[in-house]
Design a protein that fits this description.
heterodimer; A: about 220 residues; alpha/beta; Rossmann fold; 6-stranded mixed sheet; 4-stranded antiparallel sheet; 7 helices; globular; B: about 500 residues; mainly alpha; 2 domains; two-stranded parallel ribbon; 20 helices; about 70% helix; about 5% strand
Amino acid sequence: MPSQLAFYGLKIASPAGQSLLSVDHLQLIDGLYALTGENGSGKSTLLRAIMGLHPIKAGTIKLDDADVRLDRRTFLQKSMYQPQNFTAYPELTAFEFLVYFRRLRGVGKRASKADARYWLGMMGLEVEADRRLSTFSQGMLQRLGLAFIFQNASASLCLLDEPFAGVDPSARQRHIRILAEHATDRVVILCTHHVDEAVDVGAHILRLDAQTLTLR
Amino acid sequence: MKLSAVFRSFAATVQAELAMRLRSRRLLTVIFVLLALCALLTPAPNANYAIIQVGGLVPQMGPDTALLVAGIVLNVLMILIFSLVLDVGNARDARLRLTQTLRTQPEDPRFLVLARASANLVYGAGLCIFADVALSVTLAFRYDGLPSFEAFILFLALVLPAIMVTIIAGMAIDLTLPPNPLLRTFALVVFWVAVLIFSLNGGLDMIGTKSLIKLLGPEQHGADLSLGFLPVTEGSRFAWQSLPDSKFGILAGQGVSFIALVMVGVVGASTLGGLIHRNGQPMWQAKAIKGVPTVAPAKPEPEVPPRKPVQLAWIGFIATAQRLYRSSPFAIALLLAAAGTGLALPEHASIAIIMLAVVPLLIANRISDPELVLSRSLEACEPALQKPTADFVHAVSIVGPMLLAAGFALAGMPVVQALTASSGLIALAFWESVAFRRFGTPLLGTAIACIALYVFGFNDPPPELDLLGLYNPSLAALTISAACAMVLIGLAVRR
């Protein structure tokens, strides 16, 4: 059964009551979606609202059957979110960080370690796996963020907010391909300004314009 | 979530938190402070200072009694020392911008707090055992014999409950207060003072002093018990070398344990009652987000009406003070160090320093928004009033104490003493500033406590300990404090 993210009459407002954006009715099924829009159009706010980090004024969001407000725990169990400018605990190594967050979701130690090794390798960080994160550049942290997102193989929804800031072009293109490959059985929403590269790997375009979200 | 998954999640959090704490540079600072205290809290039998006096007399102690008395004094200092490391990481998560990542994990945030507090308990217990061993080894050198195993265990029974109190206090402060270092330090000091007052005057023996008085027998030696770093005069000793009753440590520990349990109940009830929001947002973060609109409506720039020169100067002063205080922990550290050190000086000078340090801080924090807008528009006209650069802050920090030295001299202090005290002040301020930048929030409180300890504890300090010459000005002290100041200024400016 494909994963499905659905918006029902969604309205998001600022805490002061000012309307920020609205989504009348929209359903997204498995695949890679590139979320685009001008600076300040509300892309990050939308992602935060999907994860329940920004209050919803009206309507709701459902992932499969889980409502973001009513079944929050189920919703979070099925979703992963990488915020803009991904950061991590500087005292931990990359490997320890991934294992910690995997185990935090109740996964066993052995499985967590195997997932962490695999995804560090996929992101080209196998050599740096045992280095402290305080020594990582922002580009390396962004790659760690991608490993952090995708190591949860059972997630139905992955949200990535500008994950390629500070990543060099060749690595960016490689990572977009990886995203597309792993978006076949889940909904992956990628907030990016590199729309062409996303379209090249078959991404759908979600355009946020004039406070309205549309699928193109 | 299944029970096994819950256990795995709990164990992972404890393990990760312990790893982070053990790798943090703060651990080195705490160990350094503990080792220094172990040396200071175990004076040799013929030392010219003591850490306990009963009825004005100093007991001649053996290794067992010395270990327990050191435990009581350590209890007094425990909250400030261990506050360095024992929080539940909310401020840290906010500083590292990891709050969102954590809030999108499915486990209950209260569970995360509990796991972090458990990690703190393990970590704190480890530090207590370290202190116990370090004190025992020091006493072995001082008294030519190790303390007994019974005394070793009694020490832990005395100190571990105090660690519990500290953990809970750290948790409460971290969950309820915004990550403002000044505010948190202030709350911590208030809590510390409250604990001391309550344990000395209240019904519970939180730090073990009352049990000690019972043990000594007031009718025998008098109930006038003093703890701290106290000067010793010739012929003021009495014999007291036996191991205290084994009930002593337990009695003292019971009092603290009771308080710890009450605090667990209060904090637990507050937590369940909404201190942490359902989505894992601590109260202070929720308020902050609520108060800040995501997209702020554009505000028209206010027109600046014509002002008289005095008004303009006043607004300029306020704007500069506000920028200094709000942008620089360095300046705050300097002023607090000035206030702390000033207490050691003659009364009129100390009042002047406190006024100099505290009053602008109060004024800057009381500025309301309209005035802020006004001063901002004024700053737009005058670049010098904009956010000060690091060089400007350093310049102020150096010139400030120089002016203080001049003030001391004018207040009647000998010139050498004024210069030495000012150099010592610069050294202390820069140490605090550098350390604060390096280690984060709670060190400021500990540094202030160390100054207070230094100022109040050594009423008649051994000359060799007065390295910065705050009491006994000399050419050597002036050289040392000036050298310290120069090195620290160099470090601060280079960074």
